[in-house]
Amino acid sequence: MTKPTRISLIHATPLAIAPIAKSFKRLWPQASVFNILEDSLTADLKAANGNIAALITRFSALTRYAVDSGADGVLFTCSAFGPAIDAARAGVCVPVLKPNEAMISQALELGSKIALIATFAPSIAPVTAEFEDLARQASKTIDLRSICVPEAWAALQQGDARTHDHLIAQASAEAVDCDVICFAQFSMTSASPATQTASGRPVLTTPDSAVAKLKTLLAPHSY
Fold this sequence. Notes:
alpha/beta; 8 strands
């Protein structure tokens, strides 16, 4: 009997766990998925004044732990740590994905005028850098508009998903002239239907894009 593909998910907030679990259940239920939660990372990034380099050693340790535990693939789910993930995956023998790279590739295929919505402000700079880097590699010029809705993050932390979703959908009014809307964080996924209705634009979420990418890399014959 073939062993299920083992995926390690590494989270900096418990709010990311449910959205990615739902995406795996819907898009790749055959995968064996395990969670590693290190929820001091967000606070420590703030304490370091946004200096992601200060956390690289810890990200390398988390990645090595996942691989040593038998992971066939690793997915980080917090968008604020891109450069640390780049450093951590160097030399690792299994696919290690940043949260947004699959979504960004999809967005670049859909158009050049892109709205990036975030609820956690430190996510914007690293995700913007990823967009610009991948666009440059694709020789594509993009018009990227960033929209931050910190009140939605606060609402979600209080367990108020309805207000969270409403605030994000309301903010998407600023993106009605864009080709596509991208959510910068896994924790925002529940707002996708309301945002698509409010904006009339395609909405891409990091969990669905990431699961599809991992499935392509690790189970290419299952489609």
